[in-house]
Amino acid sequence: MFPYEKFTINSFLNPHLVRQKLLDVVEPPKAIRWGFRQSEKPYEGEIGEHSFMITRIINYRNSFLPVIKGKISPEGMGSKIEIEMKLHTFVFVFILFWLGMVGNICIFSLISIIYEKNFSSGTIIPFLMFIFVFLLTSIAFKTEANIAKKFLIDLLS
Predict the structure, then answer these.
(1) Residues 118 and 54 sit within 8 Å (Cβ to Cβ)
(2) CATH classification of 1-157, choosing from 1.10.150, 3.30.530, 3.40.50, 3.90.220?
(3) For 51-89, how does the pLDDT look when each residue is reduced to its tens digit (9 = 90+)?
(4) In whole angstroms, what is the distance from residue 71 CA to residue 81 CA?
(5) pTM given for the model
(6) Gap between the Cα atoms of 157 and 146, Å rounded
């Protein structure tokens, strides 16, 4: 239900070269990043020996920017990179809470419509709010996830 993406890149590069390629495009995270790009590198995050956690550096606000976690393991002469993209934990919890609250209002509105035959234009507002936030979250996440996925495949394949 929530935006999430998981995929695997099989690379001809060995794990050391994969790590090096990631280091070339990822800078250490900054506590505060102002509105304009301050780096030539497109991503920020942490690169470990066999794993990484990165996010794309953008010069606009998008709370639905995916957090990209990856595991690098040797496979044959190259490597296998397993990648998982999720919402930031705070954003996930906030959206879950918000949709839960609006979802409950939708249920009460539906009960009111069915049993009390009390329909007005105002009773559809919670449904529209639920759909709007769900679509906003999904589309904004998927757009950024596709950009990151293409970048990582091009970089590591």
Answers:
(1) no
(2) 3.30.530
(3) 999 999 988 888 999 999 999 999 999 999 999 999 999
(4) 6
(5) 0.88
(6) 16
